[in-house]
Amino acid sequence: YPTIYSKILHLSLLWLGVFTLTSCQGEAEQCEMIPGSMSLPVLEKKGDITLGGLFSLHDMVIEPSLSFTLTPPPTQCTRFNFRTFRWMQTMIFAIEEINREGKLLPNITLGYKIYDSCSTPHQALKAAMELMGSKGDPGTGGDVQDEEKWHCILTFSSVQVSYFSSCACLSDKKEFPGFLRTMPSDFFQVDALVQLVKHFGWTWVGVIAGDDAYGRGGANIFVRTLGACVALHEIIPKNGAQTAIKTIISKIRSSKARVILVFAVEQDAETLFDGVLREGLMGIQWLASEAWSTAAVLSTPKKYHRILQGSMGFAIRRAHIPGLQNFLLRLHPSYPDAHKDPFLTPFWEEVFQCSLGVQVEGQEQRKAPCSGEEELGSVKNIYSDVSQLRISYNVYKAVYAIAHALKFCADSRCPVSVHCISISLYLLSLDAIECVRCLPEFWSSADRTVCIPKKVEFLSFSDTMGITLMAISLFGSFCTCVVVFIFTWHRNTPVVRANNSDLSFLLLFSLTLCFLCSLTFIGRPSEWSCMLRHTAFGITFVLCISCILGKTIVVLMAFRATLPGSTVMKWFGPAQQKAIIASCTLIQVIICTVWLVVAPPTPRQLMPRESAIVILLCEEGSAVAFALVLGYIGLLACICLLLAFLARKLPDNFNEARLITFSMLIFCAVWVAFVPAYISSPGKYSTVTEVFAILASSYGLLGCIFAPKCYIILLRPEKNTRKHLMSKPTDKF
């Protein structure tokens, strides 16, 4: 019943308990009947709370012959793995470090129960079952001396932390809601491998996968993501059958592929490369998945160097764990409680190729006795090498992740009604490789535990900049209204009458609108405010410039009309002046109407991931329309400036053309400087730049054209006479 046992294995791996650390690479697709029911070797230390751990300390199992009439002999695990033994010791190191310091979990002592999965599914299942059925587990009716110490276990009983499971399938929170890990998903690794293949221009690549969810899943993602032809796609059998390996190598030769990706665990990769050595397959560029890219299979140059030289792959991030090396080298058969460690004897005998005199049932004594003078410090191997701490660091982080979860649980007294499942939110601060990225409109908190909404930024009426600009705008409107009052009160005086009072009042009205339109740029952007601000700005400024243009033409033509027989002025009477203003303004109205219909300005959110703020602004909608609006204003301003410059020396004691020239120079200078400043200003400061340009140019027009007139009307009334205005001017431009 392979499917049934596959599901049982899958469930057992999730039910290991809240503190279980597992190294399984995913759900196995086939599983044999479990031989025997004898207890497995376990390394155990008591504590208030126990962490369970599964490590593949051996690379394979010698399967016993099953007669189904007698109790099967104990399963024999072979090929001791120094690398995974270091992982196991790292777990113990982290637990003892937490207990010794006592800051993270005061008044709580962590213990551990560690089993060897022997790199096989059924052995991992047996270990899982023993963890679930161990004495003190309230789920089996065993003795519970202190019910409170299991309080959090009841709450977290379906949560699992893995230090080595990278299978992308485990990211499915619907199927694996309680699965957490300190290992990145294969999605990231596969994406990097695909980029590597494309970088070197390899177009004919073979793929070989291990017969498990890790290998099959990763290889399938690679094939789908690559988007190119795959030379072959083969599976390494778990039983390591030589005929199957020989068939794979034969297919590699016939495919003529020179680049092969091996997406498999270390044990499966070693099985494949043993076959490659036997068959003499050379000249292959091997690509390594992270499971074996830094494994012992590459650190044995005498055996695999000639076939794996030049292999490429990606590895888990390397880190340094202070104090770990001394902890690793402390092991010795004579150290206290060494007799309680069932894994020390096979490790020691494998390292020094000697026998400690402990006869293992069913195994002959083939090694010389150990002298007792052996020291781990005198041997260099992958166990004592701490220069490449990658998975070991994942184990270290996994233990600390659990400890932080327990601290959170203890702080909140962990009521059963609330591995508290949302503890994953609190793992962001543990330097995990696979972190949850906040949505664009959110930002990580200072301690990297939760995603909080970003601060929304726009030119507001409540901030200092907004208040300042609003005050300047209202003050400008007030000054314009004062000028209107002065001109109205003295409307019959020569200064007011001599300068076309109708156009002057229309110009003052348009200037008031220019000052007020700047207020539409302040406040939270909306669809209506975005459409209003740009169109109101464009139309009011064209109206203003059109009035000035009309005044300039009148001044210029008035002196032309003084020549004998000239009939020029009849073409530039009040009606014609109004027609010029209306025509010029109508063109801008048409441009703005088309703009609003085709591509209107709309509010937009800028959410840079590296910034803690969301910027609200108005997007122009159509850059062409915005350029036309500005360009048309600039065109009228340039015409105005040219005509005023031509009329600057006309005989007039109060030469308005001279004042218009000054005002247009200021206007053009402001808007020429505006364009680069607007483009380069970030966020809300682009809006500030536009408002500043509107206010500066408006003040320039108001000050240059109307301030000298108000000065004469209020402070020099003796000059506000027809005689003075008609006298010969005494100064020149």
Automatic annotation (TrEMBL):
Against PANTHER family, the record matches this protein to: C-FAMILY ODORANT RECEPTOR OLFCT1, CALCIUM-SENSING RECEPTOR-RELATED
| Annotated keywords | Cell membrane, G-protein coupled receptor, Glycoprotein, Membrane, Receptor, Signal, Transducer, Transmembrane, Transmembrane helix
Give the G-protein coupled receptors family 3 profile domain ranges.
465-729
Supply the name of the protein. G-protein coupled receptors family 3 profile domain-containing protein
Q: Which residues cross the membrane?
A: 465-489, 501-523, 535-559, 579-598, 623-647, 659-679, 691-714
Superkingdom is Eukaryota
Main location group: membrane
Q: Which CDD domains match?
A: 7tmC_V2R_pheromone
Q: Which organism is it from?
A: Sphaeramia orbicularis
| Gene3D superfamilies with a match to the protein in the record | 3.40.50.2300
